[in-house]
Amino acid sequence: MTTWTVIDEQRVHTVESGDTLLIDPTVLGWTRMPDGLCRDEVCVPIPNDVPAGPIEAGTLARLLQRPAAVDPTEHIASFAAPAAERADALRSGTAPDFELPDIHGVIHSLHDYRGKKVVLYAYASW
Amino acid sequence: MWQAIHEELAPEGLVVLTIAIDRSPDDARPFIERAAATHPSLIDTEHRVADLYNMVNVPTVVWIDEEGSIVRPQDVHYVSNELASITKFHNRKPLAALRAWVRGEAPAYPGDVRADTKVATETDQEARAAFALAWWLSQQGRDEAAERWFVHAGELAPHDFTIRRGSMPIRGIDPAGPAFFQMVGDWVGRGNAYYLPLADTATTADDYEAEPIEEIDMAELRRRIEEQR
């Protein structure tokens, strides 16, 4: 067995698996039910050829429509948010909320400023 | 300077919220301290906001109203003309539009916000997965593997300069040096734009006639950048 690192957006998990990464879907917040993979009220079907138990990382990424990067040498996998989820959120018109620290480590969130007009200005030192 | 805008328009209900898309708070600290910022100045080492808002370069501005709605698609605005002779972005129309919106004198955007909002493709999100993997490897000191994934992420999303340029300091590449100019030259040479400003506040010749700018050359620009570090 090998210890893999699984990056799920902002969360980092460790998963014990073999040379091929098999992931228990609960790591990504989904439960394997008779109907398929379920989270809250949503279920996605699992094809018949997917064996019971943990699911191979690439297969799981496709089922959940989560674009992924898997490095079998470094034993790391990274799952991004589904493109459709991001697109729907952005086009809904509501500014996606987030929490980030300032240079003193104090956490601020966008919703702290509800009731004001906000200019979000992203810049970088590069 | 955004600090000046914040001071000017805070009494009229505006908050300037700056986000440094940088590898560490220490990279952003000199900018924040030099500006003597009193507005919230946040650090996004994981490219969280870039992911949520599909930002692919900096500077990027998003205007949000009192109800938390995006009222203008993301845009490229410089509020200072300090570097305008290099950036080719004049601040005249962006500043006028911002003041008019904050004061309720004009809508934030003349077009259809939803239709003009660009969203990420699956490949763009795959690039973000690859970038996150590379960044994690880099933080573990596994630089060779990180390099492979940074390069791969940039190949997946060649238009995403938060990945291609933003990874340069992490990889030991000067983000304002020859590698950067070659990257931009190749990109623009293939018919692409490095920045995609919205039309209504895009810089035009009359901006320079109305408000002339100071000409500076690249050597002077480098000096000013160094001064900020």
Provide structural commentary:
- The complex is a heterodimer of chains A (126) and B (229).
- Chain A has 126 residues and is mostly beta strands.
- In chain A, 13% of the residues lie in helices and 39% in strands.
- Chain A has helices at 57-63, 83-91; strands at residues 2-8, 11-17, 22-23, 31-33, 36-39, 42-44, 55-56, 68-71, 76-79, 99-101, 107-109, 117-123.
- A four-stranded mixed beta sheet of chain A has the order 2-1-9-8, with helices on one face. Chain A has a three-stranded antiparallel beta sheet with strand order 4-5-6, with no helix packed on it. In chain A, strands 3-7 form a two-stranded antiparallel sheet.
- Chain A is globular, with a radius of gyration of 18 Å.
- Chain A starts with a strand and ends with a strand.
- The mean pLDDT of chain A is 96.
- Chain B contains eleven helices and four strands; from the N terminus they run αβαβαββαααααααα.
- Chain B has helices at residues 2-9, 25-34, 48-53, 84-87, 92-102, 122-139, 143-156, 161-164, 178-189, 205-210, 218-228; strands spanning 14-20, 41-43, 60-64, 70-75.
- In chain B, strands 1-2 form a two-stranded parallel sheet. In chain B, strands 3-4 form a two-stranded antiparallel ribbon.
- In chain B, α6 (122-139) runs antiparallel to α7 (143-156).
- In chain B, β1, α2 and β2 form a beta-alpha-beta unit.
- Chain B is mainly α and 229 residues long.
- Chain B folds into two domains: 2-116 and 198-228, Glutaredoxin; 122-189.
- The chains are: A mainly beta (126), B mainly alpha (229).
- Chains A and B meet through β8, β9, α2 and β12 of A and β1, α2, β2, α3 and β3 of B.
- β12 (117-123) of chain A pairs parallel with β1 (14-20) of chain B, so a sheet runs across the interface.
